Backbone:
């Protein structure tokens, strides 16, 4: 690396340069779900992290204008559904369209009143602990009230493509 | 999935069950670095996410007792160094020992006064925008002032093991 290879700074970091670089930080792929007034709602989210063990808590970042965010805060509970490789198509399905279109053909079960996707390799049902707006996103702390996981190969988003991990 | 496969809730989600499940959410592997009063310091961090494009910002979660956290907040700037597969050994090196031991044999360059690892596949130098303590961690918002990325295969942490992504 040379000094020149680092792009110069504010306002020098363009949105494109930032997006390009951050796409090279691998992430898991999840669908965040909750119960809306008219039925289950959800959206694809790549920005999820483990936060603390005591209490068991995770953090989800949702765009401030996200309809799912509004429903999560109204409901007070949500689920993080980690997509295995076998269900990677759900990332696209939960990225656009109406709630009904997103859930069309998708198997789910209510768990503590929150829709949990049957295909998820990890499912964590959370109560909203707190939320804070930072720039154009909301960081939502979820205190985990139910969790299960299996050993399916996960999906990793990297370089704008989906990749399978582990054999 | 059956209802029974979801473990019951607070206080029913044990630390072990939570750790086991969250290890199945794949993450990138980074080293967060900053300049301490006695030289470069840093630690391995798996909890990093992109936050916003305007301004270009990311979020890092550090344990409240982390020495690196103290140095980051004192300095006001830090770098996120994403580890490619070829530098995956640095995750272990930056997880224990003194600052001198962590940087032993590691090539780095100062960038805006912050040590940036030569081996990083993505390097983002940030100014601390804000920070908030949640449970036993601090969430640090970094506004990105320099960023560069290359196409090296990244390292993914999954199921407590490191995996290579993409070919």
Residues:
């Amino acid at each position: 690396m040379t000094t020149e290879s680092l792009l110069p700074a504010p306002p020098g970091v363009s949105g494109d340069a930032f997006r390009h670089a951050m796409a090279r930080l691998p992430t898991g792929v999840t669908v965040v779900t909750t119960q809306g007034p008219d039925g289950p709602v959800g959206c694809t989210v790549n920005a999820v992290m483990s936060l603390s063990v005591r209490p068991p808590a995770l953090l989800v970042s949702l765009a401030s204008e996200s309809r799912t965010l509004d429903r999560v805060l109204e409901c007070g509970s949500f689920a993080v559904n980690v997509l295995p490789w076998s269900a990677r198509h759900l990332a696209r399905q939960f990225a656009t369209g109406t709630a009904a279109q997103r859930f069309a053909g998708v198997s789910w079960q209510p768990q503590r009143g929150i829709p949990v996707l049957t295909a998820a390799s990890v499912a964590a049902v959370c109560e909203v602990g707190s939320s804070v707006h930072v720039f154009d996103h909301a960081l939502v702390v979820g205190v985990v009230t139910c969790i299960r996981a299996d050993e399916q190969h996960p999906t990793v988003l990297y370089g704008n493509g989906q990749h399978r991990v582990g054999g």
Q: What stands out?
A: DSSP finds four helices and twelve strands in chain A. Residues 1-5 of chain A have pLDDT under 50 and may be disordered. Chain A touches chain B through 76 residues (CB under 8 Å). Helices of chain A lie at 15-22, 67-75, 89-93, 99-103.
